[in-house]
Amino acid sequence: MKIAGILFCVAIFLWNGSAKAEKSAEFFATYGEYNAQGRRLLDNIEPKTGLVELPDGVRLDLRGKFYYLDREDAVYVLTEMWGNPPTAAVGTLGMVFPIQHDPLGERSWGIKLEMDKIGYVDDTDAASIDYDELLRDMKAEMAAANEARVKDGFPPITLLGWASPPVYDSANKRLHWARELQFGDDVEKTLNYDVRFLGREGVFIMGYIAGMGQLPEIKQSLDEVLALPSFAEGKRYSDYVPGADTVAAVGVGGLIAGKAAIKTGLVAVALVFLKKFGVFLLVPLLWIWRVIRGKSASS
Q1: What pLDDT was estimated at residue 185?
Q2: Per-residue pLDDT at 19
Q3: Count of alpha carbons within 13 Å of 59, Cβ hemisphere only?
Q4: pLDDT at residue number 276
Q5: E strand residue ranges, 49-106
Q6: Mean pLDDT per segment of 10 residues, for the chain of length 299 residues?
Q7: In sequence order, what E strands does 141-225 have?
Q8: What pLDDT sits at residue 190?
Q9: CA distance 141 to 280
Q10: 3-state secondary structure of 220
Q11: Using CA atoms, how far apart are residues 35 and 157, in angstroms rounded to an integer?
Q12: What is the b/e burial string over 247-267, where b = at least 16 CB atoms within 10 angstroms of the residue's CB?
């Protein structure tokens, strides 16, 4: 009887694995291009499409052009697939990917989702921000922080400039900008593209994880990405109640400069920037990609 039970459990395990593999193969057009190792990685995630309800009244309408990974799957991608430290996945609500890209693709990019409940952000400073001056201040602050980074054994981070200058849409209460960064002496530059949606209780964050090579595609799809989230009634920016609701300690300029964490007491010792296959690569990215790439017949 015990043997029969064990065999039954094994059969269920194998069936579940087969079902997941079949589902992954059906969803990802590139599934057959990976070897067994790559396919196993894709089998461990479950993409979702359509309408997605997130905490704090945030909704995503993926419109058939994107797919969503829940928090558990997003942590798996960020840490197990891409090699970022576990701390880099803290606070994530999930991730969004373009429907044509799987997380392992050489030219894929994803968006990490978070909600920062810092309160209602007063946007009256937006019209008067000098973005050139703001950039100079950000460069100086990052350069000053590098002393501690190098002392702790991490390479310095250089802010090279705006990859896309800040844009604030006052009508829709959304903000986006991109920075071009260099880690140490890395030849490949890193892209930090950020989108913020202002709500009654805080800011919904969409942070791109991509390289500079993905910038043209990201810009081309930006309008589609901006249309994905919305706040439910009662959580919208326009639902703010003066004198009753919490007001954030920063404005639009503070969001861009990254001041929110400091102002709210969440002081970070070191800046964290996510990258595919880890922030500090010990082997070339192309080599890692080739390891998991390969036709089924060769696996």
Answers
A1: 87
A2: 66
A3: 11
A4: 57
A5: 51-53, 58-61, 66-69, 94-98
A6: 50 49 89 92 96 97 96 94 84 96 91 96 96 95 88 88 97 96 86 95 95 92 97 98 96 86 33 48 39 43
A7: 157-169, 174-183, 190-198, 203-211
A8: 85
A9: 22
A10: helix
A11: 35
A12: ebbbbbbbbbbbbbeeeeeee
| Token code pair at residue 262 | 């400091």
Query: H or E stretch including 230?
Result: strand 229-231
> For the whole model, what pTM was predicted?
0.82
Decide: 20 and 43 in contact? Cβ < 8 Å.
Answer: yes
Query: Both tokens of residue 42?
Result: 């894709």
pLDDT at site 10 = 41
**Among positive and negative, which fits the CA dihedral 285, 291, 292, 294?**
positive
The distance in angstroms from the start CA to the end CA of the chain is 37
Contacts 24+ apart (CB under 8 A), 11-20: 17/43, 20/44, 20/46
- Candidates 291, 288, 273; CA nearest to 211 is 273
CB 201 within 8 A of CB 236: no
Closest by Cα among 237, 232, 217, 107 to 170: 237
Q: Which residue has the tokens 């202002």?
A: 198
